[in-house]
Write the structure tokens for this entry.
Amino acid sequence: MLSPAVLLSLIAACFANTGVGKAETQTLREAAARHRMIIGTAADAVHLKENDYATTLSGEFNQLQAENEMKFDALHPRPDTDPNPYNFGPADQLVEFAQSHKMLVRGHTLMWHSQVARWVTGGHYTPDQLSTILKGHIDTVMKHYAGKVYAWDVVNEAFNDDGALRSTIWYNRPGIGLADQGTKTIEQAFRWAHDADPKAQLFYNDYGIETLGKKSDAVYAMLKDFRARGVPVYGIGFQCHFDLSFDNPGALNSFEQNLKRFAGLGLKLHITELDIRLKDSSDASLQAQAKLYGELAGICVKQRACKLFQIWGFTDKYSWIPGFTRGAAGWALPFDDHYQKKPAYQAIFDAFK
Ligand code: XIL
């Protein structure tokens, strides 16, 4: 784990030259810095050559996270027997961009059922072999980025909506050999990650755990157990892929209560993948979206353990939403297709002020 002093200096560097102390706050990163908060976004190296993309990214955010380029299939496309199993190029480009703009880098993700390289999913490996593959992957990737990536989503989306463990290649199909021991597979990943880079902040990340319920109860029980037994977990990531239906007192209240109980375990809280999809881009929809963005940012600012407010991309131009949700939906982010600020931008900014 990063010591508080080291982390503070890292974060302070990200807040430097951002106008803190100047009379007028003009960007999200300046506004967030007032609360010592991190404002992050998912990003893709392929877009960095686009001037509007690069200037918005570096001007408004003090953290980036690879939307895809640090996933298993991207980083480790060839088997370990290949002379060149890893492909760090695009992810390294993101890291260099971040460093040259005093931004933090958050890593995503080491153990996940999706976007695993085909050589693994189609390789018919035994549990022993899969265990070696995953340990090697975590070790190589985290050592490559040690000192550059301050936090990792070590495990992503390991639970089903009903709170049962998700059936995956790492867990039980066939898994790394620990499927008969409940959350032991997840614990093992955290232990390997801690060994690989003892200074990195290690997170469990998931969707559908934002409010009280079966799934968040299951994750809560696991993390309570991990904390009690000294398993090296530092925080929890709430993805927050929402639509406007989340804007009701029941859900918002439940979200706040839920954040509180995880904070009560001594965990840091990160909002990791927020987007709010709309059915249309009417003024009314954009205003309703802004209201919800503002409310969520306000809840994070209020909760001391909430250190990161991160959105899943920043421009509607490259949002994953139109391609991934059933039915017509989109317009999910605070900047439109032409990098113009939407009402949501102002609402987040105001919540940070
Ligand atoms: C998504 C990306 O945004 C897409 O570009 C990609 O095609 C699929 O994955 N939960 C996660 C993210 O943890 O990694 C996912 O990102 C969105 C859901």
In short: Residues 67-68, 156, 239, 273, 320 surround XIL (CB under 6 Å). Residues 321 and 330 are 6 Å apart (CA to CA).
